[in-house]
Design goal:
- Two copies of one chain form a homodimer.
- With about 140 residues, chain A is mainly alpha-helical.
- The first copy, chain A, has a domain of about 60 residues: Arc Repressor Mutant, subunit A (Orthogonal Bundle), CATH 1.10.10.10.
- Helix content of chain A is about 65%, strand content about 10%.
- In chain A, strands 1-3-2 form a three-stranded antiparallel β-sheet.
- The structure holds a DNA duplex (30 and 30 nucleotides).
Chain lengths: ~140, ~140
DNA sequence: CATTTTTATATGAAAATGAATACAACTACT
DNA sequence: AGTAGTTGTATTCATTTTCATATAAAAATG
């Protein structure tokens, strides 16, 4: 009995990239149809858990290059979605907070995201969902140092 | 007992994006250190399993936008890594084949990729690896229609 | 503490990307 | 066959992203 899968279908990096792509794709369309950029969503979602992050801290969650995030954040501030303020403790740092306008937006998007995930995982039992997420969490923890 | 995870750490799309990012990151650095673009790697890897794909077919595996792939493929042909030829059956189509030069490159990169994956999954038992990959494969199948 | 090194963010020029579209070839329908 | 719609690829142009670097502040060093 030989290996049943082609390289690509047995290559973890590809399976992750592909599933990530597919899962996000639909939802990104949904967001874009409402006139929002997916970058905005990613930034707001990352801030939704823990507000007042530094640009660097935010950058670690949001998976952008630093100059990209820097510019996006300035732009989002100009659209009143975020507030940027110098950190008093370290005057190089910029602390980023969601504005009230941003909060209402992210609340809406979070609800949509949860609903979308529910659909994506509709065929999975609660145990399977936790198993999948748990394995991914473990992988992330394992790799991020 | 309340929910132990923040939104982001319990959101499948994020877990996938993050783990995908982390897994690929190191390997991409490794490739870039050798002077190769990660886009080239993705294209060559996708072709390694099944040569002579059409641009559209290749595009489905490689997760680029069509104009991006179109340009990359022309560029790679000019560097003698690929061969583009009109499909006789359908003269709109371009069939893409790996050149001999491309073959030696991809053989090298495939070996590196497998070695890298082995390191990434070093802490996982064979069963766990198959479980993880199986779940991802299932997710991909489930979503790609 | 003065000096060097490191860290946090911003910016400008250059490259990559993508939406829209053009164009050519194929398919379906009448 | 002729026409209308569809599909496969290339191209254009505006936007986005990134590399390289600047700047300023903090930390480390002697």
């Amino acid at each position: 009995m030989t290996k049943p899968f082609s390289f690509i279908d047995d290559y973890l990096a590809y399976l992750l990239a592909r599933s990530s792509h597919l899962v996000s794709e639909q939802f990104h369309h949904q967001i874009q149809a409402q006139g929002w950029s997916t970058n905005y969503w990613r930034i707001l979602a990352s801030l939704s858990d823990e507000d007042g992050l530094t640009l660097t801290q935010l950058n670690q969650r949001v998976l952008f290059k630093q100059p990209t995030l820097s510019k996006l954040v300035v732009k989002m501030e100009s659209e009143k979605l975020l507030i940027r303020q110098k950190d008093d403790a370290d005057k190089r740092s910029v602390k980023i907070t969601i504005s009230p306008k941003g909060r209402t937006l992210v609340a809406d998007l979070l609800a949509q995201a949860k609903a979308h995930e529910k659909k994506v995982l509709a065929d999975y039992s609660e145990e399977q969902q936790q198993l999948l997420k748990g394995m991914l969490r473990r992988l992330v923890l394992h790799l991020q140092d």
